[in-house]
Amino acid sequence: MSTQKLGFEETLGRHILPDKCIGCCACIIVCPFKSLEYVERRPALVRECRSCGICVKVCPKFETSTADLERFIFGRERGGGEDFGVHNRIVIARSRDERILRRCQDGGAVTSILTFALKNGIVEGAIVSGIDREEPLKPTPKIIDDADELLECAGTRYTYSPNLLALKKAVIEGRGNLAFVGTPCQITAIRKMGKAGLKRYSEKVNLLIGLFCSECFTYKGLIKEYIIGKLGIDPYRIEKMNIKGKLIIKLKDGSVTSSSLKELRRYRDNCGSCPDYSAELSDISAGGVGLDGWTLLISRSIRGEEILKAAEKEGFLKVIRAEENMKPINLLRRLSRRKRERNT
Ligand SMILES: Cc1cc2nc3c(=O)[nH]c(=O)nc-3n(C[C@H](O)[C@H](O)[C@H](O)COP(=O)(O)OP(=O)(O)OC[C@H]3O[C@@H](n4cnc5c(N)ncnc54)[C@H](O)[C@@H]3O)c2cc1C
Prior knowledge:
Blueprint: H1 9-15, H2 26-30, E1 36-39, E2 42-45, H3 54-58, H4 66-74, E3 89-95, H5 98-103, H6 109-119, E4 125-131, E5 139-144, H7 147-153, H8 164-172, E6 178-182, H9 184-195, H10 199-202, E7 205-211, H11 219-230, E8 238-243, E9 246-251, E10 256-260, H12 261-264, E11 284-287, E12 295-299, H13 302-313, E13 317-321, H14 326-343
């Protein structure tokens, strides 16, 4: 579809919003006329659309050519055997900081890389997802410039966190040289901004860390209806939630509850049209893929590899070669293929 003179309603409004939009907010932040706002987790047209077509260029769900983006970012398309995208190196990593290990989701590699980058001035701030003090399982986009604050944001919230809203705030505040942590759709949106020449956003982000993602759930469904409503669990009693083939909820009193993913199907967000499991366009991708207490990291860009190597050298991360344990790589390959086959 030619998007030259098309407005929001004829494009994203008609083809994405009804059942594909995840509420990443890319369209909202780039609209030069402030015509879109975030209303009930989705973009809503609140002022006349001038049909400039800019929102259409950045939506991760609309006419995305992964091959074009790979050439733009990495200078080449993925080769045969690169089922999970262009990459340099795959490692299994674990933080060397006990405080991070106590709060993180898997091996704390994401928080450790960000801590290293902040402490060494490689980035001046990090956009992550933190927690809401009033509703502790609700993800809240945050701009962080202090390593201690990062620690509070470690761990995974399995409901959608529109981190691009924090990018907009950071840009308005005149910040730059930022790291950004997000799901594959958010990473794709930032890369599309770069390819569309929207430097106001894309040039402010110097390190993109993408999280593996099978799917996201809605806060209303997973947390309010299921965990609080059906299971009767007070969110303040939860120590950690994890999805490893099933949903595992560990409470602060040491007890553990688990639920089958089938039971949670109805609380899924609009992830059904996303083909990207391992954030294939990021500088570094991170996931747990069945590991216990370790994070699988994929360095994809030269910058990603340099930062990963430096974080290891400076003692922030313990790193082992992923080839020493092929199980997570095989799982990554299988899950990446499956998501792409189902959703393209
Ligand atoms: C919605 C979702 C689905 C996921 N699905 C899978 C999966 O299917 N398979 C898999 O192997 N891994 C999955 N992951 C990634 C995994 O849960 C860990 O984030 C990853 O292994 C890194 O672990 P870590 O201990 O190194 O991260 P940590 O050091 O704990 O840091 C985690 C970082 O993630 C950020 N974050 C937390 N919640 C969100 C959110 N909702 N949106 C954006 N950023 C967030 C935090 O701010 C923090 O910076 C998923 C993550 C999310 C958010």
